[in-house]
Amino acid sequence: MRIKRIIARESLILLGILVLGLAVYFIGRYLNNIYLMHHQEDKFKVIQNMKYSLLGYTPYIRIMSFGLNISVFGYPMVSLIRFILWSVKTLRNK
Predict the structure, then answer these.
(1) What does the DSSP assignment read for 19-60?
(2) pLDDT tens for residues 5-25?
(3) Which of 16, 36, 45, 67 supports an S-S bond with 24, CB 3.0-4.6 Å?
(4) What is the phi/psi pair of residue 55, to 5°?
(5) pLDDT digits (tens, 9 = 90+) for 49-73
(6) Dihedral sign for Cα atoms in the order 49, 55, 59, 60
(7) CA distance 21 to 66
């Protein structure tokens, strides 16, 4: 029974981090599409500049990449932080 609770808790944490990361990504994508619609005459120049820039032409590209980074690296970072806190707690108790 205890293992089922652990698996359920970890899967909810993973699902929450994925949903958060994808929500940030799609908000950035939505804002980027609004930006491109308002700058329709500059669209080809914007797309050309996006191709040559690592982070993108607009800050919305950074928001999108931040959302993907949350989705990919969020759970390993949370696991690492929880492991460090657990080890410190264990060493203090002994």
Answers:
(1) HHHHHHHHHHHHHHHHHHHHTGGGHHHHHHHHHH-SS-SSHH
(2) 888 999 999 999 999 999 999
(3) 67
(4) -95, -15
(5) 555 444 445 677 888 889 999 999 9
(6) positive
(7) 8
CA pair distance 89, 68, nearest whole angstrom: 32
**Angle at Cα 66 formed by Cα 65 and Cα 69, nearest 5°?**
85
Residue 86 reports pLDDT greater than 50: yes
- Indicate if the pLDDT at residue 84 is higher than 60: yes
Please name the residues in contact with 50: beta carbons below 8 A apart, sequence gap of 6 or more.
56, 57, 58, 61
**Coil, strand or helix: which one is 94?**
coil
Tokens of 57: 């032409």
Q: Tell me the Cα Rg of the chain.
A: 20
DSSP class of residue 89 equals: H
